[in-house]
Amino acid sequence: MIAQRPNKRATISDVAKLAGVSISTVSRVVNETAPVADETVQQVRHAIETLDYTPHAAARTLAGRRTGTIGLLLPEISGAFYAPMLRGIEAGALEAGFDLLIHASSAVLQERGNGSLPLAEHNVDGLLVFTDRLTDSEISRLYRRGFPLVLLHRTPPAGLDIPCVTFENKAGTRRLIEHLIIAHGCRRIGFLAGPDGNEDSYWRELGYREALAAHGIPLDPSLRSVGAFDEEQAEAAVAAWLRQGIELDAVFGGDDEGATGAIQALQRAGRRVPQDVAVAGFDDVPFARLMTPPLTTVRAPIEMAGQQAASQLITLIQGGESDSSTLLPTELVIRRSCGCA
Amino acid sequence: MIAQRPNKRATISDVAKLAGVSISTVSRVVNETAPVADETVQQVRHAIETLDYTPHAAARTLAGRRTGTIGLLLPEISGAFYAPMLRGIEAGALEAGFDLLIHASSAVLQERGNGSLPLAEHNVDGLLVFTDRLTDSEISRLYRRGFPLVLLHRTPPAGLDIPCVTFENKAGTRRLIEHLIIAHGCRRIGFLAGPDGNEDSYWRELGYREALAAHGIPLDPSLRSVGAFDEEQAEAAVAAWLRQGIELDAVFGGDDEGATGAIQALQRAGRRVPQDVAVAGFDDVPFARLMTPPLTTVRAPIEMAGQQAASQLITLIQGGESDSSTLLPTELVIRRSCGCA
DNA sequence: CTGAAAGCGCTTACAG
DNA sequence: CTGAAAGCGCTTACAG
Questions:
Q1: Are residues A43 and A155 in the same domain?
Q2: I want to staple B228 with a disulfide (CB 3.0 to 4.6 A). Which of A158, A167, B5, B233 is the partner?
Q3: Is B101 helix (H, G, I), strand (E, B) or coil?
Q4: Based on the domain organization, do B43 and B91 belong to the same domain?
């Protein structure tokens, strides 16, 4: 068993005393916020070292009115999607010297017992919002307070000029579906939608429709189901199609997880992929190329999206201007699951 | 272009004024830290609501000497390993009402320009350390200050009584290797070590050796290479074995990423898995069961490890006692890559 | 280049 | 049950 023994820490006054200067001067050498005589700097530095002094973040925040931290609101941490996204956000935050506070709870911005919000104006200087859990009205409230906000994969509520960064979902999907149509002659292409209300999915569906329309293929509503960007749900959806005897020559999984589930269902039912049914995804998650067959998909710059979102947020925090909306390019990645050799 | 317009916020004094009470009273109703007359409570609550008041975290921290936040130090965010680990840590933190601050930089605990540490005594109440980047001496320094610390996948520097949580690496690996030996008659089993100095890998190697010894199989040093828990490095290592004409009837990838690389190298060289060479991993990452062939591996309770580590840290922070070391059980997961049907 | 002082927004004894 | 006051450890005008 281990118990903790508390311990006194050096403060700015201790340093000032030891160095024989005022705390203002210590603050100045620590922050390089005003010129200080060389000799004085040396004394202060030495005192800092011998006392192992480290400034107290909360005191700084309170006195200086900034936390040096950005917050991230996530729906939940799972799936291959998150690692690259977090890496990008971390990179964006760090390169500007900001810390990252994350909240993946489903109850985010729910009040806590003590009445404070888990992630709000006071522990972060701004918020990156990637979740449907935050309602439009909560977003409005923060926005009206002038609190810096950047949305990921989600457009702002009507009338609010909040920056958002998303992928070029529609064009990417359209290119993918057209490849299926043109190169592989597919005409009955199943579409697996994402979770309800998901905007990425909304645009992908538009791209899907455009591709069909452009090639004179009528839209068949029975070819639409919900995979929810979830392997299991996608598998169930495709299994249901198969059970109902719905003819398919391809299925677009909505994302790579959905494609994975689709492949499972197909193979389980004895269909060969891609010989009997082509399958394609979206994201190009690290595992996509390792699947059997390797997955044809649309590469989304997930990491870059995270980094850009973080950078934009920090620009806003620092009083700068930010683009109101960023659409990151996507790229078709052709592998074998579509039928290409 | 979007620019930010700042905005005034209500403070505890505003609330006190509006409610016609002192700030002490407001503090008491907000924190439920002392009995307050019902009527007063109502007035204060009402004032809080009309002013949309939210306590300032930094002020609370400064006055109350706690941040309500735990920090996490990671080497880098990548691989299928991280999502479950983060999920567990988040869960552990949240259930105790703590926030999570993460740092995945390689330069962690490196001083910043302003002399403050990115993650230290002042922005967090305790630290979860899962990285080799933090040297033993840095850990000692924090420990000596009485700063709550919990180590993940790493034992404390000699003499320091710091709690750590790890997997049952040795026993799990031994069971796995014995399965290869007993069920599949393997005798020339390649071992792919993790990154240099990695403790998980160290124990897995001991388990590997024990298994061989228990079955009278001599240790062949040429059967050891470094995969670094990385797909590409593992692939290169196995490719090198093949090129050198080293005979193998199985390879243990060190972890699932390593196993993935091994399978790639083997298949690329025309060897069938598992008919020609069996392959096994460690972790049972979400994708393991989806690989071709489905991967035989050792299931590590990654998410639980994260949660336990967070809980233990919070126990320490709250002045409680914590186990000095937690060894989480692992479980053999037999699929097809070992040769089982 | 340097210091004294006010103030950031809270919590927490101390009185009553 | 309630308030006045000190103090948490800094930053930042204001003087000099």
A1: no
A2: B233
A3: strand
A4: no
Look at residue A38 and tell me whether its pLDDT is greater than 60. yes
C-alpha distance from B210 to closest chain A C-alpha (Å): 30
- Whether any strand C atom is under 7 angstroms from the Cβ of B31: the reply reads yes
Which nucleotides on chain C have any atom < 7 A from a protein Cβ? 1-5, 7-13
Please report residues of B whose CB lies closer than 8 A to that of A31: 114
Same domain, A211 and A291: yes
State the average pLDDT for chain A: 88
B226 has pLDDT over 50: yes
Give the Å distances, CA to CA, from A199 to A148, A153, A327, B188, B208.
22, 7, 13, 52, 49
Contacts of A78 in chain B (CB under 8 A): 83-84, 87
CB A100 within 8 A of CB A313: no
Q: How does DSSP classify residue A152?
A: E
What pLDDT, on a 0 to 100 scale, did the predictor assign at position A9?
77
In a domain, B337, yes or no: no
Asked whether residue A184 falls in the same domain as residue A295, the answer is: yes
- Mutant choice from B9, B77, B311, B318 vs A, greatest count of A C-beta within 10 A: B77
Residues on chain A touching B292 (C-beta within 8 angstroms)? 291-292
Residues shown for chain A: 341
Beta bridge partners of A213: none
On whether residue B154 sits in a domain, the answer given is yes
Q: What is the pLDDT of residues B282-335, one digit of tens each?
A: 999 988 998 889 999 999 999 999 999 999 999 988 888 888 899 999 999 999
Bridge partners of B129, per DSSP, are B73, B151
Give the phi and the psi of residue A76 in degrees, each rounded to 5: 180, 150
pLDDT in tens, A172-184: 999 999 999 999 9
Q: Which residue is nearest to nucleotide C3 (CA to C1')?
A: A22
Domain carrying residue A268: 169-301
The domain spanning residue A32 has which CATH number? 1.10.260.40
In this complex, the answer to whether residue A64 has its CB under 7 A from any atom of chain D, a nucleic strand, is yes
Look at chain B and report how many structural domains it folds into: 3
CA distance B127 to B74: 11
Residue with the bigger pLDDT between B220 and B324: it is B220
pLDDT digits (tens, 9 = 90+) for A9-29: 789 999 999 999 999 999 999
pLDDT (tens digit per residue) in A245-271: 999 999 999 999 999 999 999 999 999
Q: What is the pTM of this model?
A: 0.83
Q: Give yes or no: residues A297 and A176 share one domain.
A: yes
| A3:B90 CB<8 A | no
Nearest by Cα to B118 from A29, A50, A93, A318: A93
Q: Looking at the structure, do residues B124 and B81 belong to the same domain, yes or no?
A: yes
Question: Shortest Cα distance from B209 to chain A (angstroms)?
Answer: 30
Q: Is residue A7 part of a domain?
A: no
Is residue A152 within 8 Å of A309, Cβ to Cβ?
yes
* pLDDT for position B119: 55
Q: What is the distance of C-alpha B188 from the center of its chain? A: 32
